[in-house]
Amino acid sequence: MASVNEKENNKEEYSFIYGDEAVSYSVIRKNVIRKIVTQKNNSENAKRKISIKVHPSCEVVISAPDDAERSDIHDAVMKRASWIYDALKEFRTHLEYVETKQYVSGEMQFYLGRRYVLKVVEDNSALPSVKMSRGKLLVTLTRFNDDKQALTKALVSGWYGVKAERIFHERLAELLPQATWVDGIPSFRVMPMQKQWGSCSAKGNLMLNPHLIKAPKECIDYVILHELSHIAEHNHSERFWRLLTSVMPNWKEVKSKLDGMAELYLNE
């Protein structure tokens, strides 16, 4: 079992062998408040406080107390080696699909968390349109020309925008009664954003990213409730997280799901 140790400030770099692959991971040490305990109990506490995260970027990060033994960290990693490898495999699969869209038949599109195969057809007797049909996102053009890709992209983007306006309005209306701290009905508009799913202005006006319509409804609900919580707390204070948790107890799980698919949903 090979291991590479490379320290840099508070960050350590290691690797372990799984099958025929060397998997690299980082260890970040955290300062902890120490109490007077026996050596055995201290070791057990350190083990319990070791956490493992696999990020969509395929970075494996281990958080551990600054007094955790290297052997304890290694044991924790090896116990979850299979899970780490499977998570990396899934994220790598996602990254393989993150290529610039060509808007041609056969490409994958998303809507409310489901995958649809794009099909572009020509029909001189029909109006340009986009509709879902039997697992496909069917785009009809009146004629094929040099601007086929641009026309298809414009039609698909417009279709997403219309769907986003309608679904976001429906979800906001349904979720608003839960946000008892909000007075009246906040206004919202759909606006493309590169790095945000939504935002809330100082006046309580919401902006939502149309790409969010590609995600499951629970992810849409999370973003809306997140922004509604900002009406009461404009920063991420403890009260903010308490408000969000009160209306969506599983928000961490939902956020993780959305983050894991972000590159695919935002890709256009």
TrEMBL record:
Residue spans crossing the bilayer: none
Domain YgjP-like metallopeptidase span(s) in chain numbering: 48-259
Pfam families: YgjP-like
Name of the protein in question: M48 family peptidase
Species: Aliivibrio finisterrensis
